[in-house]
C-alpha cells in the first residue's frame, strides 16, 4: 500500500516537537540545603573568660557571645584616659591667661612706673626752668630728659606685659597641643575598640551552630570561637542539566519540598558559569546531556528558608 505523504509529514513534525515538548515540562531535581556560617573570632589572642551562648540557642543581633580576659586591655584603656585628660588640661591652660594674682602684680608694677613717670616729668620741668635762668647746668637738664624717656619706656613695657598676660599661649603652641589631644583621643578609641573586639556580639539574629572553645582555654588571634547561622544564610543547592540551563534566570522562582515539611518557594540567586562535571570528550550533542551546572536559590528576606543544612529536598523547576 503506498505511503501517505501528508501523514509522513505530520509524523515528522511531531517527532521534531518532542524535544521542545520535553523542555516544556516542569523539571524535578534532587537537591540539598546548605548554610553559610558566620564564624565569630577575636582579633587578639587571650584566655577565654566566658561564653554567653550554647549550641542550638537562638540569639538576637547585639547579644554578647563570649569574652576573653581583658585585664591588660583595661589597664591600657585607663592609661589612655589619663593621658587624654592630662593633654586636655594642658590645652586649657595654654588657652587662658595668667592667674589673677599674677595680673595684680603686673598692675602694681605699672602703677609704680606711672608714679616714677610723673616725678620725671616734674623734674624735667624744674630743670628746664633752672637751665633757662642759668641756675642749672645743661647736663642736669639732659639727665632729667633721659630719666623721663626711661620711665615712659617702662610704662609702655608694663602695659604690653599686662596685655600679653591676658592672652593665652602662642598660636603655634596651642596648635601643637591640640594635635596632641587629637592623638590621645585616637589612642583611647583604639583601646575601646580593642576591648570590644575581645568581647564580640552577634552581628545578626542567628542560631548558634557550634562553640569551639571552653572557658579557660587559650584562643589564638583570629580563631573562631562561635559559629552562627543567620536564617537568611540558608539556601537550596541543586544541579541543572545543560539543556535546561537557558530556561532558568536569576530571580526565577523554584518550588521545593522535603520529608515532613510544607512545600515552599525560593528564588534563584546564583547560577554557575562553569559545569560541575565535564566528560573527557569533545562536547557533542550526546555528551552535553551529561553537563550539570550548580544553581542556588534562597528564600525572601522576610521569609527565609526554614530548613536545616544537609537536608535533602526535591526541587521543581517550572518550564518557561
Overview of the structural elements:
By secondary structure, the chain is of the alpha+beta class. It is built from five helices and 13 strands. The strands form three sheets. The chain has a six-stranded antiparallel barrel with strand order 1-9-12-11-10-13. The longest helix has 33 residues, at 100-132. The relative contact order is 0.20.
Sum up the structure in keywords.
5 helices, alpha+beta, Elongation Factor Tu (Ef-tu), domain 3, rod-shaped, 42% helix, Four Helix Bundle (Hemerythrin (Met), subunit A), 320 residues, OB fold (Dihydrolipoamide Acetyltransferase, E2P), four-stranded antiparallel β-sheet
* Strand content bin: 15-25%
**Average pLDDT rating:** 84
What is the CATH topology classification name of the largest domain?
A: Four Helix Bundle (Hemerythrin (Met), subunit A)
What is the count of β-strands? 13
Shape: rod-shaped
Q: Work out the radius of gyration.
A: 45 Å
Which percent bin holds the helix content?
Answer: 40-55%
Order of helices and strands: HEEEEEHHHHEEEEEEEE
- CATH C-level class of the largest domain is Mainly Alpha
**What distance separates the N and C termini?**
43 Å
Largest beta sheet, briefly?
6 strands, antiparallel, barrel
Going by CATH, the architecture of the largest domain would be: Up-down Bundle
* Helix-and-strand structural type: alpha+beta
Figure out the total of helices: 5
How many domains is the backbone divided into? 3
| Strand line-up of the largest beta sheet | 1-9-12-11-10-13
**Unreliable segments (pLDDT under 50, ≥5 consecutive)?**
279-284
Amino acid at each position: 500500500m503506498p505511503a501517505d505523504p501528508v501523514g509522513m509529514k505530520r509524523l515528522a513534525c511531531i517527532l521534531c516537537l518532542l524535544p521542545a515538548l520535553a523542555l516544556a515540562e516542569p523539571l524535578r531535581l534532587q537537591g540539598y540545603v546548605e548554610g553559610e556560617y558566620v564564624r565569630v573570632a577575636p582579633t587578639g589572642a587571650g584566655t577565654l573568660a566566658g561564653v554567653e551562648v550554647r549550641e542550638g540557642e537562638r540569639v538576637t543581633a547585639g547579644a554578647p557571645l563570649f569574652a576573653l580576659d581583658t585585664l591588660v586591655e583595661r589597664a591600657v584603656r585607663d592609661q589612655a584616659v589619663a593621658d587624654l585628660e592630662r593633654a586636655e588640661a594642658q590645652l586649657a591652660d595654654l588657652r587662658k591667661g595668667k592667674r589673677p594674682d599674677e595680673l595684680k602684680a603686673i598692675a602694681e608694677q605699672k602703677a609704680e612706673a606711672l608714679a616714677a613717670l610723673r616725678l620725671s616729668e616734674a623734674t624735667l620741668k624744674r630743670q628746664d626752668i633752672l637751665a633757662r635762668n642759668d641756675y642749672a647746668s645743661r647736663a642736669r637738664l639732659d639727665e632729667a630728659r633721659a630719666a623721663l624717656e626711661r620711665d615712659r619706656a617702662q610704662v609702655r613695657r608694663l602695659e604690653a606685659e599686662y596685655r600679653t598676660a591676658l592672652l593665652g599661649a602662642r598660636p603655634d603652641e596651642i596648635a601643637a597641643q591640640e594635635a596632641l589631644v587629637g592623638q590621645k583621643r585616637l589612642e583611647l578609641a583604639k583601646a575601646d575598640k580593642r576591648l570590644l573586639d575581645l568581647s564580640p556580639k552577634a552581628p545578626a539574629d542567628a542560631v548558634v551552630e557550634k562553640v569551639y572553645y571552653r572557658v579557660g582555654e587559650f584562643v589564638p588571634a583570629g580563631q573562631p570561637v562561635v559559629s552562627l547561622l543567620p536564617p537568611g544564610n540558608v539556601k537550596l543547592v541543586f544541579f541543572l542539566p545543560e539543556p535546561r540551563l537557558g530556561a532558568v534566570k536569576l530571580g526565577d522562582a523554584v518550588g521545593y519540598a522535603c520529608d515532613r515539611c510544607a512545600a515552599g518557594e525560593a528564588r534563584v540567586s546564583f547560577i554557575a558559569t562553569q559545569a560541575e562535571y565535564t566528560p573527557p570528550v569533545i562536547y557533542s550533542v550526546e555528551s552535553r546531556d551529561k553537563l550539570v551546572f550548580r544553581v542556588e536559590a534562597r528564600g525572601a528576606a522576610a521569609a527565609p528558608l526554614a530548613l536545616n543544612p544537609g537536608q535533602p529536598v526535591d526541587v521543581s523547576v517550572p518550564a518557561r
